[in-house]
Amino acid sequence: MKKWSILFVAFLALVGFQQAALADASALKPCKNCHDISPGMKKVVGPPLFGVFGRAPTIEGVPFKAWDEKSLDEWEANPQKVKKGAKMLYKTSSAEKRAAIIAALKELK
Ligand code: HEC
Predict the structure, then answer these.
(1) CB neighbour class for 67 (10 Å; exposed up to 12, middle 13-18, buried from 19)
(2) CB-CB neighbours of 107 under 10 Å
(3) 80, 88, 94, 102: which to mutate for ligand 1, most atoms within 8 A of CB?
(4) What is the Cα–Cα distance from 73 to 92, expressed in whole angstroms?
(5) Which of 7, 34, 50, 89 has the greatest CB tally within 10 Å of its CB?
(6) Cβ proximity of 21 and 95 under 8 Å
(7) Can you give the pLDDT of all 109 residues of the chain as single tens digits?
(8) Rounded CA gap, 75 and 96, in Å?
(9) Is the CB of 100 under 6 A from ligand 1?
(10) Mutation test of ligand 1: which of 37, 55, 90, 93 has the most ligand atoms closer than 8 Å to its C-beta?
(11) Where are the domains of the chain?
(12) Angle at the Cα of 56 (from 20 to 97), degrees rounded to 5?
């Protein structure tokens, strides 16, 4: 009996984990209109985002040394505020959504 309950708990944990992973990836859905997020590293409208977390910006004119929580949060909230004339025409006003996006970007490695 005990064995079954351990298995059951493990099963629930696995299902929960998979759902969390799915929720993460879906946060990047709007980004995919303009960015390749696969290891293929294709330039689409914007630069590829695979491995973006922790690396230096590939675009000119942003005042950051690396894309981390803080810089990504500022960029996502308003690219034009970070860089005059930024070509990324997409903003995420919800701090909660930005956090979900950043969590998903960290997984792109
Ligand atoms: C409408 C098209 C569009 C959408 C949607 C979009 N981007 Fe962008 N993004 C761009 C463009 C264009 C650039 C280049 C900006 C420039 O050079 O001024 C860019 C640049 C970036 C960069 C800098 C990359 C580097 O290599 O330095 C990051 C990070 C980024 N976008 C993240 C995101 C995220 C995360 C999302 C989804 C929430 C997103 N973008 C949605 C068009 C888009």
Answers:
(1) buried
(2) 13
(3) 88
(4) 9
(5) 50
(6) no
(7) 666 665 655 555 555 555 555 547 899 999 999 999 999 999 999 999 999 999 999 999 999 999 999 999 999 999 999 999 999 999 999 999 999 999 999 999 9
(8) 15
(9) no
(10) 90
(11) 2-106
(12) 30
- Superfamily designation of domain 2-106: Cytochrome c-like domain (1.10.760.10)
Nearest Cα residue to atom 36 of ligand 1: 31
Tokens of 74: 């500022």
Residue identified by tokens 């998979």 is 18
Question: What are the residues whose beta carbons fall under 8 Å from the beta carbon of 51, sequence distance 6 or more?
Answer: 108, 109
1: amino acid identity, one letter: M
Residue 21 and residue 66: Cα distance in Å, rounded? 25
